[in-house]
Design brief:
5 domains; 6-stranded mixed beta sheet; 21 helices; Rossmann fold; globular; alpha/beta; 21 strands
Length: about 625
Amino acid sequence: MAHLLGAENIGISFGTRTVLDAVSLGVDEGDRIGLVGRNGDGKSTLMRILAGQQEPDAGRVTRRGGVTLGVLDQRDDLDEDHTVKHAVVGDVPDHVWASDPKIRDVMNGLLDGLDWDRTVGTLSGGQRRRTALARLLAGEDDLVFLDEPTNHLDVEGVAWLAEHLKSRWRATDGGLLVVTHDRWFLDEVCTRTWEVHDATVEPFDGGYAAWMLARAERDRAAAVTESKRQQLVKKELAWLRRGAPARTSKPKFRIEAANAVIADVPEPRDSVSLAKMATARLGKDVLDLESVTYAIPGPDGGAPRTLFDDVTLRLAPGERVGIVGVNGAGKSTLLRLLDGQVQPDSGRVRRGKTVQTAILTQDVKELDEVAHLRVAEVMAREGNAFEVGGKDVSAGQLLEQLGFGTSRQWTPVAELSGGERRRLQLLRLMVGEPNVLMLDEPTNDLDTDTLAAVEDMLDGWPGTLVVVSHDRYLLERVTDHQISLLGDGKVRDLPGGVDQYLALRRDQESPDAARAGTGTGAGPGIRDAGADGGAGTSAAPSAAAGPSEAEKRAARKEAARLERQLARLAEEESALHASMARLSESGDFEALAAANAELQELAGRKEEAELAWLEAGEVAEG
């Protein structure tokens, strides 16, 4: 494997703080490396030094002769007067670049729906970002460095980018270095991980899940005493064991080792207890959209565009729902409808008497009014002690939990970074004790450790949670089900999660779906959710519509009853095994035979209950 770039004993300091100290590392052909670490630990600094954009105080960076390098910074250098097409392919004639399948893939994947003749100066921040990324990926660089490439990309765009990078950088096809907070993206794309911490860089094989496991093992071997950090790492691993990443066949994840590390870790959240607490705080009625239609003015005074067309959506006490959808489909507008900030054109929004909402917006303008205060003073306005997860914690402890050390707690709000402002605003919202919390792209500007801390807080939060995010990991981690907006005015339930959403989008854009004349572009896998399924759209029943909503509700209740029965049977089975072990040691073979007969009868009952549970589940899913 050929060497592309290397760093030897590099070091750099800012003032009295050493960011990197005697770091040596290298990038080989075929490497897809994820750069992780806490905000301020030096990830972007390391990338700039390796790219030759910044000189280290000590050491040197070498690059193999002839190796070209392309960098995506968080700020682009696009010419304001160039068109989008010129910014990406320059003066290359259309018939030349259009004959290149790689460039066609990039243009379709990142710039689909964008007018290529628009000038860069008229683009939004997200459109400029996608244009800069397209320009870089359309090139022929051997090494590509990407700093937060998933910012301003929706779920579909992130999935396309991951697939593009995996297919492009194979075993002998150059190298990739990426800084991102998107943990699904890290797991999907990266074959190696570099952790920047304490002025050093520690390499690991594999993506995010492998790094989390290795870090837990490293901490355990070193007998780390920082208990809060250990618990967060263990909790993340517990999710990985139960979630989609743990079901992969990648041997690097070493699932058996993960199970040994986290054998004593409980579920990330106690759904039953949280549901009881949420019902006590909210009552039976939370927020319902009933036959809601809402339109926004068209561009340049054109015809209005309908975002929601006769949509019915019901939120239950303690429900945790994630929202995914194409850009412009109305995800943020849906939150504003639920929050009462905008009113529907028709239909109504029903609000429970005890409902108290709070919404985390993307721009966090709510902190402007306290910009002159320090972080600790802002929290002091909210109170001195708070209850989190059944425990009383001080304002300082809460701030520290979300990454505000003692020194940062006395920083003026006006001097906080974007990620710190989002953390502080989220903390303010949660300690205000709302019972319906709505988060609009909460992962923006947050590092992976802070995201884990945020998820840990949300695990114990007893209320209804609505999350809009392109971060698949976060959605699958903190929500129990997802709904989608495909831009056709409807809201659809996603029993299959984000994977189902991506399949629906593929069906929607396929030529076969267009020829079928569906009108909505919906593929065969789409179904409307029921009123009690968390989300739904009004639809006329048909002969082939499957079970009715009443039948689905009954099936869900039956499935829940059978789950409780199966849990009791499992406890009885475990007790019988323990009893038979004791009887075997005592030599009471008559009692042992009777216990064995009881075990066989129990196994039959368990099998019947499992079959009934599967049948109920099929009916509940429609």
